[in-house]
Design brief:
Number of strands of chain B: 15
Number of helices of chain A: 16
Strand order of the largest sheet of chain B: 3-5-4-6-7-8-14
Strand order of the largest sheet of chain A: 1-2
CATH architecture of chain A: Orthogonal Bundle
Oligomer: heterodimer
Largest interface: A-B, 40 and 46 residues
Structural class of chain B: alpha/beta
Number of domains of chain A: 1
Number of helices of chain B: 15
Strand content of chain B: 15-25%
CATH topology of chain A: ABC transporter involved in vitamin B12 uptake, BtuC
CATH class of chain A: Mainly Alpha
Structural class of chain A: mainly alpha
Largest sheet of chain A: 2 strands, antiparallel
CATH architecture of the largest domain in chain B: 3-Layer(aba) Sandwich
Helix content of chain B: 40-55%
Order of helices and strands of chain A: HEHHHHHHHHHHHHHHHE
Helix content of chain A: over 70%
CATH class of the largest domain in chain B: Alpha Beta
Largest sheet of chain B: 7 strands, mixed
CATH topology of the largest domain in chain B: Rossmann fold
Shape of chain A: globular
Distance between the termini of chain B: 83 Å
Order of helices and strands of chain B: HHEEHHHEEHEHEHEEHEHEHEHEHEHEEH
Number of strands of chain A: 2
Strand content of chain A: under 5%
């Protein structure tokens, strides 16, 4: 192992954000348990989602019927794709509030460039993705190179993009996307929405790239501790720029899928994706301070949020209470996710007298 | 001073005569100002005042109100409406209108001293863009208007209030608005009133105290809209489950018709859900799919936003693999809704709609112009409601944009230039 990399890992450990503490005194049952608990920082969202499914099957079984899934699966997929983009940014201690702007302009580009013609769908999707790449690149340069505050920068860029979207939308009379896109979204291979399968494939690809490819591992290293990564010879700024650019591309992809699901675009298109993706990422176990995150857990968190919303609706709870329950669920999700419980259990299980050894950060499961 | 004495009997006779004369005059006034028959309304009031002629083309009235008989009952309100719709037939310079529409305002070139403003808190959809064009076309029929101003706040309340205040500071002559933020805009309405600037809202953009806090509100009686919905449901659903959907939680428009539809329904009709949608098609899709999952035998939906219903509910039914067999009562007459229903070609889908009321902005402007000439404007200009059956009178007007209202008075050729 190169000296730089070893130093990087020590730095990562010292930072103490994402990595586990493994007991030095033998690999007994307690240490194995602690190891498992610490390594499983992304598990709570899976357990919470399983609990939600169980509760739904008891108090709102209609939420688990095919009619309900027909809505939940495509919309959770759109949220999951947007959340994956947000996750890449959050892994680098950033935040991206340009999501609604990119989705809004992207959606209208699908309509405007597509112009009701299936033959133009390809170029319309490329235009949409191009906007995502461009906006992400601008965000990345402003945050990564110019070191501007990501919260303010991405919000401002989002406003500019949304304004351009409005200007573009003003000249459009039609609102429907080319029929091939809506037909695709309404396709149901194996009885499940094609959008869901597409989303699952994208999620899997992101998870595998982060977990098993060298660039993915480097990407995580920068997120876990930029200083250590820099000392290890990794181009930190380039990775930050890449994070925002990839995020913008994923938002645009989410816009393509949403446009297909909704068939048409209106001024509210994408508006609900400002904070929901951030909530999904945080519930999935990521820290807003940066560090590791899990693509699959983010996907599950998106499912949980969409299903919870649908369940509350089906229960017929008054709108005010729906907001209260939904907000409370997000807070509880944040409390039980991440390394909070794992750290607590780790502290409880750690022998007081024994010295500790820090486990390498990059050995954690990030898929 | 000596005053000749009048006998007790003569005094009684004089009193009786005056009373009979007064009753006769009242009866005559009531007869001329009655609510029956529009054909008579269009002609009987073909006089005018305050710079207006109270006469409109029956063709224009039928296009924008469904029937020429559906004019406001109040005499002055009806006269204002006739004057406004009468102006819709006047020739205007479409090139100038288009330029004005694109540039968010213009000088009309008449040299008129008046400046009129259309202040939009939202302003971002085709419906509002068409309202803007209706406003411009109406303003261009007045030689006294030299300048047209348009502001949009993109759903930002602070910006909307700032825009309104900017208009007051510039001493514009009159302001028309659609108050998306309802009573939150009351302070600026009062400031305008204090500054002597008349303000009108349209399409039932209701803010408290019309006539007191501002000049007038143009639109329909939303409670009667709810009762009209109930009548349709009672006739075609008869018994079973129906659902209500509304806009933003607690908005007065949705609450207005819902509180009046519910008690007017047959006892065998059950409202199983009442959900807000924020007038967002995605949310409509979610709400419809959720309600469909919980109540698979739902027979009817009452809502305001026709296009949202077309974009959200149609997709929800399709995704659920269910035929859209239901009765829909809707407030707006969006072209997209009509075309979606036409495309579906399902006789078991019964769609009843009212009007989005783009052209009501013309009435609002004319009311303010008359106010500037000293007319006493009624606090509410209320149009009667008659729901239309999509099967008999389709909203799917060829050449109109999906989001446009089928009852708009913007000419199709101009629409094509607006949206090439």
């Amino acid at each position: 192992m190169p000296v730089g990399a070893a130093a990087a890992k020590e730095q990562v450990s010292a930072h103490g954000r994402t990595e586990g503490v493994v007991l030095h005194t033998g690999r007994g049952a307690r240490s194995l348990l602690a190891d498992a608990l610490v390594g499983a920082r992304f598990v709570p969202v899976w357990i919470a989602t399983a609990a939600l499914l169980l509760i739904a099957s008891i108090i709102a079984p209609a939420a688990l019927q095919s009619t309900s899934w027909a809505f939940v699966l495509p919309y959770m997929t759109v949220l999951a794709i947007a959340a994956l983009g947000q996750m890449l940014v959050i892994m680098h201690a950033g935040i991206d509030l340009s999501t609604p702007g990119v989705m809004f302009l992207g959606g209208y580009l699908i309509v405007g460039v597509g112009h009701h013609s299936n033959g133009r769908l390809g170029i319309a999707i490329l235009a949409c993705l191009g906007v995502g790449v461009l906006v992400g690149l601008v965000n990345g340069i402003l945050v990564g190179i110019l070191q501007l505050n990501p919260l303010i920068v991405t919000l401002s860029v989002g406003y500019i993009v949304a304004a351009e979207g409005l200007r573009y939308a003003n000249g459009l009379a039609e609102a429907e996307v080319p029929s091939r896109l809506s037909d695709f979204a309404q396709n149901r291979p194996l009885g499940i929405s094609a959008v869901f399968w597409a989303g699952a494939a994208i999620t899997l690809a992101v998870a595998l790239l982060l977990r098993y490819s060298a660039p993915g591992r480097r990407f995580q290293a920068v997120g876990a501790n930029p200083r250590a990564a820099w000392m290890a010879g990794i181009h930190v700024r380039a990775h930050v720029i890449f994070a925002y650019t990839a995020a913008g591309t994923l938002y645009a992809l989410a816009a393509v899928l949403l446009a297909g699901v909704r068939v048409s675009v209106d001024p509210a298109f994408g508006a609900s994706y400002l904070l929901a993706p951030i909530a999904a990422v945080v519930i999935a176990g990521a820290s807003l301070a940066g560090g590791l995150a899990s693509a699959t857990s983010t996907w599950v968190a998106a499912l949980a949020l969409t299903l919870l919303n649908q369940m509350l609706l089906i229960l017929g709870i008054a709108t005010g209470w729906q907001f209260i329950v939904f907000g409370a669920a997000i807070i509880v999700g944040m409390l039980i996710s991440g390394d909070r419980i794992a750290s607590l259990l780790g502290r409880l299980l750690r022998p007081r007298s024994a010295p500790t050894r820090i486990a390498p950060a990059l050995d954690q499961d990030t898929g | 001073m000596d005053v000749p004495k009048v006998s007790e009997r003569r005094r009684w006779l004089l009193g009786l005569g005056v009373t009979v004369l007064a009753v006769g005059l009242l009866a005559a006034a009531a007869a001329f100002g009655g609510t029956q028959g529009t054909a008579s309304a269009t002609h009987a009031n073909a006089k005018g005042g305050y710079g207006e002629v109270y006469k409109a083309s029956p063709k224009v009235l039928a296009h924008t109100l469904f029937k020429a008989t559906l004019l406001p009952h109040n005499t002055m309100a009806r006269n204002i409406s006739l004057a406004a719709f009468g102006r819709a037939s006047k020739k205007v310079n479409y090139n100038l209108a288009l330029k004005c529409w694109k540039n968010d305002g213009c000088s009309t070139g008449t040299g008129g001293k008046l400046t009129v403003a259309y202040v939009e808190p939202f302003g971002e959809n085709v419906y509002r863009h068409i309202s803007k064009m209706e406003f411009i076309l109406q303003a261009l029929t007045y030689k006294s208007i030299g300048k047209i101003v348009y502001r949009t706040a993109h759903s930002n309340l602070n910006q909307a209030l700032a825009d309104f205040r900017a208009m007051i500071a510039q001493h514009v002559s009159a302001i028309v608005t659609y108050p998306d933020f309802a009573d939150a805009e009351l302070p600026v309405f009062r400031e305008a009133k204090k500054a002597g600037i008349p303000v009108a809202t349209y399409a039932w953009g209701y803010v408290s105290g019309p006539g007191k806090n501002y000049t007038t509100v143009v639109g329909e009686n939303v409670c009667k809209l709810g009762r009209a919905y109930a009548k349709i449901m009672n006739t075609y659903v008869k018994s079973g489950d129906i659902a209500f959907m509304g806009g933003f939680p607690g908005n007065p428009l949705s609450a207005g018709w819902q509180k009046c539809e519910q008690p007017a329904l047959n006892k065998s009709i059950h409202v199983v859900a009442n959900e807000p949608t924020n007038w967002d098609a995605s949310k409509v899709q979610q709400v419809v799919s959720g309600i469909l999952a919980a109540h698979p035998n739902i027979k009817g939906w009452s809502y305001e936003y026709g296009l949202g219903m077309a974009q959200g509910a149609f997709a929800a039914y399709k995704a659920a693999g269910k035929p859209f067999n239901a009765v829909l009562t809707l407030r707006t007459d969006d072209v997209g809704m009509g075309c979606a229903a036409k495309k579906l070609h399902n006789p078991k889908l019964k769609v009843y709609y009212y009007t989005a009321g783009n052209s009501q902005i013309r009435v609002a402007l004319t009311a303010l112009m008359m106010r500037l000439k000293g007319a006493k404007i009624p606090p509410q200009i209320v149009f009667p409601i008659q729901l239309q059956n999509e099967a008999k009178r389709t909203e799917c007007v060829k050449g109109y944009p999906t989001e446009a209202s089928a009852t708009s008075l913007v000419p199709v050729k101009l629409l094509h230039r607006m949206y090439p």
